[in-house]
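Here is a typical protein record:
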Amino acid sequence: MGAAGSPPLKRQTEQSQDNGEATAKKPKMEDNLSFRNDTMVSLEVGPERVSFQVHKNLLCDCSPFFEAAFNGHFKEKSGSTELKEDDVDTFEYFMQWLYRRKMNVTQIGDPDYFARRYTQLSRLYTLADKYGVVLFKNHIMTLLFDTVKLPGGKYRKGEQACLHYLPMWAVQHVYANTVEGSPIRKFLAAVTVWPCRLDKLELKESWHLSIECPEFIEDLGVNLAQRANQRDDPLLTSMESFMEPVPSKKVAEG
């Protein structure tokens, strides 16, 4: 596992090389965008107060937090809000996804891509969870699955798929910023246990987390018990169980 300190995020340039990820052609999200009669709002992000100018309807339609901030009873009359606790680079990835439905995160096959993608995607998931952007959370979960699985359903690196590349910081960050039963908690515990052969599974690097992150150890125990009882590998059979249902706008407003 990596060091406990939070590593810096680096923005990636887009790559077109074949990296083994699913490449099914989908309609371009930007083809369906309409900004008629929309207004711009300003998001001041991080302690540096970096400004992001965003179309209000686009932002509010995907997030109940921003819907309340800009259209609710206590809406920001100035058309601006401060998000001092958020990381600027992480928020910029969110903006990429908001407008393009894709992000330039670390590509599969890049040096140290396991650890770097886990770090980036764990930060992005907790940001999406904080603002209730379910579509974004599900997109990130798809990228997490792509990190460890080939399109044919096999693990990318067999026994070394995950455990030795899962940054300790990512585990601590996720468990500190999500609630019990969160899909990303389920994923991190499953990805520590299931890709490895049981006789070669080494958890000694995780035991010190029993003090700092006891919920993770409990989730590992659940997965180990499931393996001992010969349950199906959830990472290979049920990606849908790691996804959240997308609420309709009326439900979100209620």
Summary: Residues 148 and 156 are 5 Å apart (CA to CA).
